[in-house]
Amino acid sequence: MKVIVTGASGMVGRAQVAYCSDRGDDVAAFDHKTLDISNASQVADAFQKEKPDVVFNCAAWTDVDSCEADPERAKAANTIGPEELANACRSGNALLVTISTDFVFDGTKDGFYTQRDQPNPQSVYALTKLKGERRAQNAWARTIVVRTGYIFGTGGNNFLSTMIPRAHRGERLKVINDMFGTPTYANDLVKRLYQLAQLDLPGIYHVVNDGPGASFAEFAQAALSEARLDPSSVTAVSLDSLQRAAERPRNSRLKCILSAAVGLDPLPDWKHALRAFVNALPKEAVIAR
Ligand SMILES: NC(=O)c1ccc[n+]([C@@H]2O[C@H](COP(=O)([O-])OP(=O)(O)OC[C@H]3O[C@@H](n4cnc5c(N)ncnc54)[C@H](OP(=O)(O)O)[C@@H]3O)[C@@H](O)[C@H]2O)c1
Question: How many CB atoms lie within 10 A of CB 1?
């Protein structure tokens, strides 16, 4: 299968490239420098050259607070980009799998958000991502939107791989304890994106690791315990105390009401996935950073 991965140097992008390559696919991996997904002519050139069967869009501007100050850049990466990819997929009859976010919800619901819940984005990042979902779906029928959240994995700007080395150095860590999500291991996510591509059933899917979800503080403490570090180095703080530029949903735990219906088993529990992630971290990386 000929595959394009965009955002290939990001946390999910690099896992997607590795997974598809391991499966023996012919992978064209584009990072931001080699393909700006908001640039129609760059997208057209890439598609003409590569003629993909499937496109995994892992590119986005994910700096949630900075998006508030530069909505045009957020729109380009998170709204126009998926739409341009969908237009190019339509021209070449390729399947588009594009990633969205749990932040499309406002966080006021008790319990899990499913596809029956109405999005109500509260930040520029979240709004531009929701518009990206919709524009991509409007532009091309063979679009699969995958909402996910609280991703952990290697590379990119990622909460756990910076937290573990900091705890190792004896730093005290401030972590939010009143914001809840469903942690998702990048390696499990990309495997599921691939399965969804094989099924080729358009729609919106929620893809997260199984389990009841966690606050950032619980998530960090579990990671430190797995890494045999002292979980008490985490100081719990409230979301409000950090005074960040962007609003965040206090609860964005996701459940999928479609996956079982299309024959997909739940992903492993997030604590099992966390163990796999910590065990895969190179020892020197944990100590050196
Ligand atoms: N991380 C999470 O917890 C989380 C949660 C929910 C959803 N998601 C979604 O998951 C997907 C993957 O996120 P991630 O965590 O892997 O993010 P990431 O590590 O920040 O990777 C995103 C990549 O996209 C690239 N990019 C930005 N603008 C681009 C553009 N206009 N054209 C092409 N590439 C561009 C970035 O390159 P530069 O850095 O060089 O600009 C970066 O390498 C995104 O759709 C994100 O919204 C992530």
Answer: 15
pTM greater than 0.90 = yes
Q: Confirm whether 287 is domain-assigned.
A: no
Tens of pLDDT, residues 216-271: 999 999 999 988 888 888 899 999 998 899 999 999 999 999 999 999 999 999 99
- CATH number where 46 lies: 3.40.50.720
Q: Is 186 touching ligand 1 by the criterion CB < 6 Å?
A: no
Q: Distance, CA 232 to ligand 1 centroid (Å)? A: 31
The reply to whether 125 belongs to the active site is yes
Task: Identify the DSSP state of 78.
Answer: I
Name the burial class of residue 219, with classes exposed (0-12), middle (13-18) and buried (19+) by CB atoms within 10 angstroms of its CB.
Answer: buried
Overall number of domains in the chain: 1
**Domain containing 129: what range?**
2-157+183-210+253-268
Which of the residues 113, 125, 185, 194 is marked catalytic?
Answer: 125
38-87 residue pLDDT tens: 999 999 999 999 999 999 999 999 999 999 999 999 999 999 999 999 99
Does the residue 243 lie in any domain? no
